[in-house]
Amino acid sequence: MKLAVTAPDRLIVRTERVADPGDLISRLPHPTALAWVRHGEGIVGWGEAARLTLPGGEDRFAVADQWLRDLFGSADIDDPVQVPGSGPVAFGSFGFDPKSPDSVLIVPRWIVGRRDGAAWLTTIGEDADPLALVRPPQPPARLDWSDGTLSAPAWEQAVAAAVDRIRDGRLGKVVLARDLHAEAAEPIDARTLLRRLADRFPACYTFSCAGLVGATPELLIRRAGERLDSLVLAGTTARGTTPADDAERATRLSASAKDREEHAYAAEMVRDALTPLCAELTVPDQPELLTLPNVMHLASPVHGRLRSERSVLDVVAALHPTPAVCGTPTDIALDLIRELEMMDRGRYAGPVGWIDARGDGEWGIALRCAELDGTRARLFAGCGIVADSDPAAELAEAQTKFRAMQYALEG
Hints:
- This protein is of the alpha+beta class.
- 27% of the residues lie in helices and 35% in strands.
- It has eight helices and 24 strands.
- Strands 2, 3, 4, 6, 9, 10, 11, 12, 13, 14, 20, 23 and 24 form a 13-stranded mixed beta sheet that branches.
- The N and C termini lie far apart (42 Å).
- The relative contact order is 0.18.
């Protein structure tokens, strides 16, 4: 595996307590933003002290974890705050497919964080006021939309083909994704998208890393010392147009055999993956309902206590890819995704989040997101396909899932 590394011989890291910084996203002085924010708390960063780009491979999480252990282990760190996210932090996002060459970790030069009443500023290296980079965010202008790899009818045919494979008994579930393209007149500023997403979806994890921007409802894993937390989401319906319609949709989702089957696959996989790593693990017997502004999901909150000293990336490696974004059995589902989607997902549906020098961190699944490249944005949406899935209904669900990022771009 050939790595692309940019890093000094030794990081000099200084963290200090600061007064409440206010809105974290508004602190970002430059469009190349790094962010992980929920309900106004989290961390944001900018500048680059170090970067690792991985070409792919089944061992990419282990390689990334070892690189960070070496980098942070040799650093000169002054961190009196000592909470998850203080001190040096790497923001990261990994390709969904082990064959994808898109995985990246970035250690920013400046980090502002807020957690449980504590606020801090971390600086790596010696430099002038980081806010000297200020450039006001601008909304995207004159957007033109176009189909991605597959048109809507072609994607429905892919769903139908997947249903046939499932009914033949080759697999239990597969998650198929679509992409959608947008072109703006000027380069797209990630901060505008972050602002709109954080305001519209405060309960989601609003993220930005190396051009991947989104707001995911799905917490893959949080590590804080020995404690682990995860949130399994699978089974989705759009919100209703009236309170009565909303309540009826919630009732149908909770009673849906198709959605409960899809959810059970995901919850069981998380249980199986975490059990060997945990001294204690709690997975609910029945899912609850998670209601967001645009959709409702079946959700299972999972809690555990680590059995031994492992970083959050060790746990990410054990969990990815979950049936919520791939299918089951994993290998067969992944092969079918490669065949039917006819595209590289890039970092869509891969792990996205952050890790600090203690191995603590928060990682979500990169859903409701877009990859930005100058004036272009590539949006993604995926649906879990099981034996009784209807192609037209799955297309409608995918279109509903696109709306979060369409709103972020259009306002």
